[in-house]
Amino acid sequence: MCGRFTLRTGADAFVQYFLAGTLDVSFPSFKPRFNIAPTQMVAAVRFTTEEKPEACEFRWGLLPSWAKDKKIAHSMINARGETIAEKPAFRSAFKKRRCAILADGFYEWKADGKVKRPSYIHARDGAPFCFAGLWESWQSPDETIESTTIVTTSSNEFLRDLHDRMPVILAPEYLRKWLDPATPAEELHQLIRPVGNDFFMRHEVGTEVNSPRADRASFIEQIPQDLFGPEDD
Predict the structure, then answer these.
(1) Residue of 88, 86, 84 whose CA lies nearest to 98
(2) Residue 61 DSSP code
(3) Distances (CA, A) of 161 to 55, 77, 100, 206
(4) Is 61 a member of any domain?
């Protein structure tokens, strides 16, 4: 799964290093973020009705158009790739409303006795990447909410000891295929797979990242292996 992630890469650098030559899209400036949490706004790319890529922002936690209670979004931060074509909450978005969510790292927690130790996971070359996502538009008489969810798949061997799920990472050459509403479902399912074991690096970080209200650059810094100390008997 993916419950927190980072976007340290600036808008211009993201376009230059990841989107250049793939999608003609520009982003407004955004500040570096080190602890993006559910219900917060995330940067993404989607296709317009004219099938052109555009920069956009979504609230993280999918809110289906038919939802009567906005609280449902809290349980919709991730969508299992194996079932998104059948699940009522995701199947319409999978057919028509796919997006790519900008990121450059994410966190995962591993239980170790009474302690849950967070790890920061990022590309080996430090480059940004995109999560495969779905988006929806929800309306009430008082507001319109555009929201998103991150598509997940089974973990690769490198991350399996942390969690059995991981976000789907879209390679630049597959962005247009994922975003295009005309792409057949069978081709989309081929993109829902784990990246290779050599794509990521990871290291343990401090528990300050556990607070969704905090956001500091120090959150991604590696900590000594013995910082947590011995477990209680």
Answers:
(1) 84
(2) S
(3) 35, 22, 26, 19
(4) yes
Question: Which tens digits make up the pLDDT trace of 15-43?
Answer: 887 777 778 888 888 899 999 999 999 99
CATH number at residue 29: 3.90.1680.10
Structural domain contains residue 233? no
Given the residues 2, 99, 136, 146, the one annotated as active site: 2
Neighbours of 28 (CB within 10 A): 8
How many C-beta atoms lie closer than 10 Å to residue 186's C-beta? 7
- Catalytic: 2? yes
pTM, two decimals, is: 0.93
* Residue 132, burial from CB neighbour count under 10 angstroms (0-12, 13-18, 19+): buried
**Alpha helices in the chain, H assignment, sequence order:** 11-14, 91-96, 175-179, 185-191
pLDDT band at 124 (very low <50, low <70, confident <90, very high): very high
Residue carrying the six token digits 């009474």: 114
pLDDT at 227: 53
Q: How many domains does the chain have?
A: 1
**Catalytic position from the list 50, 86, 108, 143:** 108
Percent of the chain with pLDDT over 70: 96
Look-up of token digits 């008489």: 141
Q: Is residue 37 part of a domain?
A: yes
Residue 143 in domain: yes
Structural domain boundaries, residue 55: 5-220
The reply to whether 136 belongs to the active site is no
